[in-house]
Amino acid sequence: MEYIPRLLEQAIQRALKRHRSILLFGARQTGKTTLINRLQADATVVLVRPDVRQRYEKSPELLAGEIEALKPATRTKRPLVVVDEVQKVPAILDVVQDVIDRGRADFVLTGSSARKLRRGASVNLLPGRVVTFRLDPFSVREVPTHDVNERLLYGSLPGMLAVPNLADRETDLEAYVTTYLEEEVRAEALVRQVGDFARFLELAACESGRIVNRRKLSQEIGVAHTTIDAYYQILEDCLITERIEPVTHSRTRKKLTKSEKYLFFDLGVRRVAAREGIKPSRETLGCLFEQFVGLELVRCAHVAHRAVAIRFWRDPDGPEVDWVIDEEGAYTPIEVKWTNTPRVEDARSLETFLAEYPSAKAGYLVCHVPRKAKLSDRVTALPWHAIDELIPVA
Fold first, then answer.
1. Residues 32-67, buried b or exposed e (16+ Cβ, 10 A)?
2. Which of 19, 27, 191, 231 is deepest in the core (most CB within 10 A)?
């Protein structure tokens, strides 16, 4: 499979030209290594290798000396240094800060987990010194497809899309879930009851895209509500799930849902983790399609280079809207329907939302129509492959 450019590349290159260092987060196999290999770094430190990690754990300051010892030919410009999987040795960030402050090098730091970086009170997060980016699996904007069903079942991790045979892709997804989710993530969780966490992982995958029901999960697994919260935080920190907060303020509605949703970062990984087959019902396809649209919006938001959040809206006594684009309080509501013949009645919740929030100027019904179609003055039916038009890259 030939190299496919990523939407983040230009923004990363612009930051490096301004001598801003980069912190690039992304779950395993989202393409971080492939991306940074294109940057022509002067030195690369791969902390996922045990021998390399142990050396810097013992002496993080070695990195500064190695940068000073780079060949004179590279010292006519500021060297670019890559530190891969930086969360493996958090103490190295103090050395990175010192080198940045002295103007001795620029860095690209990558990580597949933010847990150790965010949870350690003594960890140096390099405030004001790095630009943070998030690399996701391929979006439809990066790799268009005519077969949305394939994306619903097998996801869009770069390594998976490179495998043409779907049976082989299924085998690779099984391996990903087994070797990464069930072993690495569980090991990082530091949980005493590994069986409980494994069961939670399966249930969390099944519940992806739904409002979290902590009571149900705690009863099924036999753990406290606080443990469920801790487990979700592990998945979020390890970049396996994306937390989606609701819109909770309203002029007239007093009972808006305040609980969040979680989306698994890749639908193929989600399906295999949930122990689901490859022949979902029509109802399940509709749920997966809703998650697919939500993930595409999240991925567009990650590369928008401005303040964009993806939310949802639900009144337990009435209407709900699947997704809401929030650009600093300016809302765009989005409903998702598994249909190629949308009706005016399908836009009812969107019309209710538009009437409730003056900042919302238009709503969209994402479905299987081949081209845009007006459903009302302010609601448009939008083809799923045109989702990226809703959050253009700056």
1. bbebbeebebbbebebeeeebbebbeeebeebbeeb
2. 27
